[in-house]
Amino acid sequence: MPKNEVLSGSRNFNKVYNKGKSVGDRYVVIFYMKNGLDHNRLAFLASKKVGNAVTRNRARRLMKESVRTMEKIEKQGYDIIFIARKTINGRKCEEVQKSIIKALKRTELK
After folding, report:
1. Contact (CB, 8 A) for 57 and 95
2. What are all long-range contacts of 59-68, with beta carbons under 8 Å and residues at least 24 apart?
3. Within 10 A of 24 (CB to CB), how many other CB atoms are there?
4. Which domain range does residue 29 map to?
5. Is 91 part of a structural domain of the chain?
6. Of 5, 7, 82, 92, which one's alpha carbon is 20 to 30 angstroms from that of 76?
7. Domain containing 62 — which CATH number?
8. In a domain? residue 14
């Protein structure tokens, strides 16, 4: 993922959390908000509730791979945060991808 497509900085995260909208599904929660740019900025998070470092890294990798292999997000100009839920442990990439697609369909992004 190119560097300009990565959401970073606590100010940006807090803005999306406080002013953005959220949608949840079985394995992920998605926060999103318009950013005024011509491209999307993405972030993938897994809290300590998900498990130890190995488990959290696997959850982030599953979400990244799921987003990378699915069709491009149609609408541009959004900050999007994908947060793993505890239920993501032990799941396959296809299951996570289906969950992300279902959640995105309930947003204005797809």
Report:
1. no
2. 59/84, 59/88, 59/89, 60/84, 62/88, 62/91, 62/93, 62/96, 63/28, 63/88, 63/96, 63/100, 64/1, 65/93, 66/93, 66/96, 66/97, 66/100, 67/42, 67/100, 68/1
3. 14
4. 22-105
5. yes
6. 92
7. 3.30.230.10
8. no
Q: What is the pLDDT of residue 22?
A: 97
Confidence of residue 80 (pLDDT cuts 50, 70, 90): very high
Whether 62 is in a domain gets the answer: yes
In angstroms, the CA 84 to CA 63 distance is: 8
Place of tokens 């998070």: 45
The separation between CA 14 and the C-alpha centre of its own chain, rounded to angstroms, equals 15
- Are the C-beta atoms of 77 and 5 separated by less than 8 Å? no
Q: Is residue 2 part of a domain?
A: no
How do residues 42-54 score in pLDDT, each as one tens digit? 999 999 999 999 9
